[in-house]
Design a protein that fits this description.
The complex is a heterodimer of chains A (162) and B (104). Chain A is α+β, with helices and mostly antiparallel strands and 162 residues long. Chain A is built from 4 helices and 3 strands, in the order H-E-H-H-E-E-H. In chain A, strands 1-3-2 form a 3-stranded antiparallel beta sheet. The longest helix of chain A is centred in the N-terminal third of the chain and has 41 residues. Chain B has a single domain, classed as Translation Initiation Factor IF3 (2-Layer Sandwich). The chains are: A alpha+beta (162), B alpha+beta (104).
Chain lengths: 162, 104
Amino acid sequence: MSHWVELVITLGIPILLIILGRFVGANIERRHYKSIQEREARFRSQPAFSTKRSDSIAAVGSAELAIGSVVVSVDHFKRFLSRFRMIFGGEIRSYSPLIDRARREAVLRMKESQPYADAYINTRLETSTISNTSGDEGIGTIEVLAYGTAVTFEGSGRARLR
Amino acid sequence: MILTNIDSVPSRRIVQHYGLVQGSTIRAKHLGRDFAAGLKNIVGGELKGYTELLQESRAEATSRMVAQARELGANAVINVRFTTSSVAQGASEILAYGTAVLVE
């Protein structure tokens, strides 16, 4: 009898966590993508460049540093899938949306930190892993940092809003 | 203090360079946050506690860099860069560095 209890605890809890991750995690992801798309639409006229100069002919009126960052982690279901993938090698597809979400979120937060800019130039993205105190997970938790210089062009409406 | 991550302060002329300034901080996660993050780990997504922790540390590193620049008599820091490295399990170092300059 006690063997059964043991089996349920040792197998049941991880399976429960995987199922929880599968459904709750997918739901969180869907909602997050929706929010990302809405906010990206709002910032469409305020682009972020990775170049040091924007193509605009207008003179730059002001410049200020904009920073945004986010820490994300994968759910248990994806972690479980990735373990299989690590046996055979190849792309871990279940991790890609997570990193994608994190990068887009970080860029959005950078823009939101200086909302009245005409463009964000010299945007840099940096990714770092956060080590778990338990220490066994690989890319389980990552931080993405986005930073750039928020500029306003002389004579633009946004320059007056600042 | 003006901060930019490009080589100049647009529409201002640089009159003097003071060289590299930097600020860094090493932060450890505290247990409460770690526990909450552990729970959040099950379903994935953003770990808000860690995001805040790193934002605070980055602000601290930046303000140390700015303090150093101010001491030199600068009024702007250009070409600001941020780096993060984990120095020990559960602790990370955040470094902010740039070039202190005097602009008109």
